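LOG
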Amino acid sequence: MKMIDEFIANYTKNKSEAPGFSLAVMKDGRTVYNKSYGFRSMEDKTEITEDTCFYIASLAKSFTAAAIMLLYEQSKLDLNDNINKYFKDLPQHYDDVKIINIVNHTSGIKDYFTVYENNNKSTDNMTNADVYDFILREKELEYPCNSRFGYSNTAYVLLALLIEKLSGQSFSDFLEHNFFKPLGMKNTFVFTEKTQVIPNRAYGYKKEGDKFCDFDYCGLTTGDGGIYSTINDLKLWMAAFENESIFNKDIIDKIFTSNKLNDGSRGKYGFGWFILEEDNVKVPFHSGHYNGFTNIILKVPEEKVSIIILTNYYEECWQSIFKNCTGFAMETEEIGSK
């Protein structure tokens, strides 16, 4: 695994005490490479392990979209239902917005995070109820529904609220009952204002001068994020797409397929996954970045390869994660063929 070793060496050089990462590479549902490095807490110098809980940020969207697909399988919703069938108080400009548009980021629903940021407003400690109030206050969509792709955290908060409405369970309980517990994901938690202390959690950091400063997660929304997990648990989640323990192949294929826009072109997003075509090979992936946490999961379904990287350190060099992951996948493919 030469490329991965070089990637790790580039991070670890000249760092004797620093935040770090957990990294795993899987082939055919099995772990072929695992490495953890650095501290989950700079204050007490506790080391990161395979069971360290990281805030996974937008990687949570794969769970939210999978929950919508599960409700679809249970005939509790139709993906082509208009969202105002379930939320009667939505403004009139939502009349043509379907559930599938919300899932694949073609709804035109404005991203609350971007709007707040552009207006120098903090999203710290915002809840799903706060985001729904934002939805009700907005006077128009950002663009006509299904005319283009537009990433929206608001959309995925709305999906979490829909999951709760149709299941009669909290978002946390629904994921626990249908995904976390059946798959043995014992160290994965939805974080809300009611969440107790998360054991073995990593804290987020950034570097200012020569010091690592607190840059931890400070939100309370779910659906768009709100999940802590470990490298070991996420390996179980990725293996579920190989062994079909939650969904059958037809549903999994649909999860990893982008939508068609009004003009007939393909969108960029499936069910909680960006869909990249790399040399005629489909590569679903998602990044998750918020404050001191930067993460990515990448899959090559045709080769049954998955790569997971979780970090608790904000640094520009982590952008190399995105450039290197496809190379990691191809290197893993070569190993698997020997």
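LOG (cont.) second protein
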Amino acid sequence: MKNKSKRLIYIEEYVSINGINQYLFHSGTKYDNPVMLFLHGGPGSAESIFAHAFQEKWEDVFTVVHWDQRGSGKTLTKNPDKYPTIDLMLKDLFQIIQYLKKKYNKEKIIILGHSWGSVLGSIFIKQYPEEVAYYIGVGQVINMLENERVGYEKVKELILQAADKKSLKKLEILGDYPGDQFDINFIKKCGKMRELQGKYNLAVKIGLSIVITAFKSPIFKLSDIFALIKGAKANEKVLEFLFAFDLKPESAEYKIPIYYILGGNDWQTPYVIAQEYFNKINAPYKKFYLIPDAGHMTMLDQPQLFVKALLEINNKEI
């Protein structure tokens, strides 16, 4: 591992969490800074290998810790037969927070949840608000099926505007989307939907640029690619949980400050759904940031505007 930026804190480690060794990557400039735990998306898509591309300026004010969740990234490579459930992941998260509090001598930890990580984070802060200083949701998921329905309508609208007959045919082949049943057929359809959304910059586009970004990571290993490929299978039970996930029937009362930083061009987890829910939230403090010309990978798409939002949040909370 190369610490080219000469960070004071630059650690890769495997920590025994809930019966298995799980991967953590820490990076920061001061031990006094607040500690932010980054909960990646997917489930099964570790984002630690992209950290170098967006978080250098974050580390001026936060110690950022990436956790490759059970069933993802380097943790999956280390434990190829240890597949997650939502209950296991919540227990893992609780133990990791205890470890970080002790390691950095902190009373509380900041949670930033991205995409699937926003589901895990939102559930956790309801159960254990006393462990968390505040929560930041990015690509915030409120209702998975509603995400898919709204995202479908948006890409259909753009396809029709462009008179893109080839893409329209692909859309028609999907039939009733997303449907109401979680199975292998839905997973396949979802993959094809992401391809269409990616073509119109409405969702993460898996292309050469993102692959090159991963390859440039100082912590990248070839095994990370194999873990990403295996991630969907390893997270089948969690994906089934995500399919039925819906925050709306739950109480919108939160005991900690809540911040959403969303991409104005994110239709993979459509910002319009999260914004509607955010308006109903009752919390000690809350603030909504909409980043223009940013998609689902908001922090990669508009890193300067994202950092500006983080600095404002930090200034409010210190």
